[in-house]
Structure formats: C-alpha cells, structure tokens
Amino acid sequence: MTVPYDQALSEFEAVIGLETHVELGTAAKMFCGCDTSFGAEPNTHTCPVCLGLPGALPVVNAQAIESTIRIGLALHCDIAAWCRFARKNYFYPDMPKNFQTSQYDEPLCTGGYLDVDVPGEDGTPEVVRVPIERVHLEEDTGKSLHVGGATGRIHGASHSLVDYNRAGIPLVEIVTRPVVGTGPRAAEVARAYVAELRDVLRGLGVSDVRMEQGSLRCDVNVSLNRPGQPWGTRSETKNVNSLRSVERAVRSEVERQAARLRDGERIVQETRHFHEDTGLSTPGRSKEEATDYRYFPEPDLAPVAPDPAWVAELRAALPDPPSVRRKRLTAELGLSARDSAAMVNAGVLDLVLATVEAGAPAAEARNMWLGPLAQAANTRGVEAADLPVAPAQVARVVELVSSGALTAGLARQVVDGVLAGEGEPDDVVAGRGLAVVSDEGALGEAVDAALAAQPAVAEKVRAGKVQAVGALVGAVMKATRGQADAPVVRRLLLERLGVEG
Ligand code: ADP
Ligand code: MG
Ligand code: ZN
Predict the structure, then answer these.
(1) What domains sit in the chain, N to C, each tagged with a CATH number?
(2) Tell me: the pLDDT tens digits for 413-439?
(3) Could you tell me the distance, in angstroms and rounded to a whole number, from the CA of residue 208 to the centre of ligand 3?
C-alpha cells in the first residue's frame, strides 16, 4: 500500500539527503599510474597497487586532490589544512584490496552549500539553499559481470567475471546535510540539486558527469516525520542513474514510508535498489554502522596538507558558477527568467550557452535545444546533454538555416542524421540530399499538382481569400518532403492564381 505523494506530504514532513559520487576525469588512477580510459579490454589497466598485491605502495594523485579542492571551493566549503585518507574495511569481489581507501573523519572539504532554483508556486524560480556536509575523495571499485543467467544478475548465473580496470579510479563523494522544509517540493528539490551540481561539475571540467554511464551517480536518502516530531528513520536508495529517477526515487519512498507510518509500522534503516522500469525500489541490505567498517588512518599514504597559497590560486581561477552564467545569458541575450527556467528544467542551459558561444543567435540555440533536441532526448529516454551531438554542430545547423540553405523542417532531418551518426551537419546535408529547392522550374510541377488537387482552395484564393494559400503551400512542402523554399512556393502559387501577394 502507498499513500499518494501530495497527500503524504500534507501529513508528513520529508527530510532528504543526497550522496553523489563523481568519477573524476584524471588521466591516471587515484593511487597509481594506471590509465583511466573507458572501454579497454578487461584487466588491462591494472598494476600491483590497484590490484592490492602484497607490498605495493600507493601514491596520492595530485590532480585528483586539485579537482576535489576546486569542487569544494565551488560549493563554498572550507578546505582542510591537513587531512588523511582512511581504510574502510569490507569484502567485495570487485574490491581487490578488501578495503576501500577513502576519507572518514578528516575529509578534504567540509561545510558548504549549493543554491538551486526550483519553480515556485507561480512558476518563477525560487532559490533553495542545500547545505553540504562534506566533499571527500575515495576510489572506485571494479566491475563484476555475472554470466550464463537470463538477467545478468548473480541469481541464475553460472559464473562471474571481474574487471579491475575501474578499480582505483578517483571518486569524489559529495554529501548533503539533511535537507528540511521543502514541503511538497522535496522530490523536485532533490532533482534540481543533482542537476545544478552536475552543471557546476561540468563547468569545472573535472568530470564528464554522464549519469547513464555511471560517472555521476546518486544515493537518495529519505525519511518522514509528523510535524513537530523528531526526524524519522531514513532509507537510502542506491545508484540512481538519471535526474528523472532522482525525483521518482524520492516520490516512491515518500509514498511507501507514509503508508507504513500510517499503519503504525516502523521504517527500517536499509539500502534500497531503484528499478528504472517501474519507478519503484526494493529492499537491499540492512545498513551497516560506521563501526562495522573498522575505519583507521591509511598508514601507507602521507597526509594531504594543501598550501593555502595554492588553494587561494585555485579559488581565484574558478569559473563562473552556472547561476551567474545563467544570469548573464538572461541579461545579454535578452531571454526572460521564465525562458531560462525552462532551459534549466530541460537540462539544456549549459548546452544553449555553449551553442551561443559557438556562434548561434540565442533564440535559435534555445529553439533547437528546447525543440527537436529535447524531443530526441525524450524519445531516447536520455538527458539532452547525453545526446551524441555537440553544441558546435547545433550552431552549424542554425547557420545553415539562417543562410537559407536549410528550412526548419530540413534542419530537423539534419539533426536526426547527426544523432544517427551520419557525421557533421554538412555531411548529412550532402549524404541525404537535403538542400533547399528554390529553383522555380523544379518547383513548378509540384505547384501545378497542388493547384490541380485542391481546386476549391485555389478558387477561394482567386476570390480574394489570400491566406487560404497556406494550405497549397503546405501541400507543396509535403510533396517535396520539406525541401521547397516556402516563400518562393507562395509567390509561384499566387502568380499562377493571378493574385497580388
Ligand atoms: P552513509 O554513508 O551511512 O549513508 P552519510 O553520512 O554518507 O552516511 O550519508 C547520509 C545521508 O543521509 C546524508 O546526506 C545525510 O544528510 C542524510 N540523512 C541523515 N539523516 C537523515 C534523515 N533522518 N532523513 C533523511 N536523510 C538523512
Ligand atoms: Mg551512503
Ligand atoms: Zn594501477
């Protein structure tokens, strides 16, 4: 049984907490020199250090420290003057050392915040400040592959394989403090936070932040309490891999917990697995306590003590946060607050900016990303940022339209071609033969056919109802599969009907 979301949040208050893991885009792993590139033959990017062989000694990756400090600074955190790594002990086949090198009571960055925009009651953006507890550095695990079963899960598999290429890739964990007081917007705030965080990280250039490839993944903590009562017990939904799922994971937990609490049942502290297909989660393991991990300071690594002068340099060189870039876009390009809110919601703001930076006028860049590209993302069930098209390519399509080489309809086909891997926009135009036809001789036949097919409409136009010509233009466009130059078609039609345009 569940209680509908809105009803649940009129009876209970939700507390949410988000733990976000980001794989850094460093060239080498966290504690060794192994290559981090994706898609190599299994177990070719390994060495004694990341395989945890006896006697191997790790060394901290300075670039990873720098990226983590920059993330901390962008989130308004304090940067530790001195901190250590810790061993988090547990066994897992994809973790060859039998402990994860992480940070525990001495994280590199603490106590920041991220402001996120969520639509208020009247639709204009309102700022919600999400407090950040800590940003720390750790290492990723390898990947298990369960073979021989129908589902790819361990149940029913005949054997399992493990690939350690990912083991030891630097992973930053960004943990929020409990977020309270979001009322009925708990799920929306959670989504907006992850979206904003992703834009911040993308702006810093520290990660490719691709949720569907797992370089950005989120654990979603939710608890409910009755107003005036202490916070409830939280559940933690693991590895939520899209923005939409972040929102759905909060919603489904609110609905599930509200029903249990209403029936006087307890919420157990547990991890849960989110299922993309149903939007629901199922219980995982009951949650370990920190003491189960027997954390202790890593004896093989020197402490990290970033020079304050270096931290100040990194701070001075931070890029503008997305909120500032958004304001600049709004002001310089004459877009309304509502427009930029729409772009934030569709996850295309940074893409629009980049398209403008590649030379497209703002309005056209906006129309492309909120129109055909947002639709393509929707159809494929991915984020617009994850579509296989670059802002520079979108800018080129816009340029082809404004030069008259393409119509809006043809531009869509060019975009489809780029998304289908047919190459650059110009390659698609050539490959699919998509140039606009404005040659009057070539269009004459289609114009005559349209007039012959719709004599009643032709008569209306002749009688002075000039706007009726639109139906005939439409027919010609259809017959030429969108390739006709519409103003030329209109002029030809009116000439043939003996009417002044
Ligand atoms: P763990 O690794 O055990 O999950 P963390 O401290 O890393 O613990 O993360 C816990 C997350 O849950 C944090 O984001 C925290 O703010 C959040 N949290 C803590 N208490 C609650 C609660 N009662 N309801 C919802 N979220 C909570
Ligand atoms: Mg956790
Ligand atoms: Zn290695």
Answers:
(1) 5-314 (no CATH), 320-432 (no CATH), 440-497 (1.10.10.410)
(2) 999 999 998 999 999 998 988 888 878
(3) 21
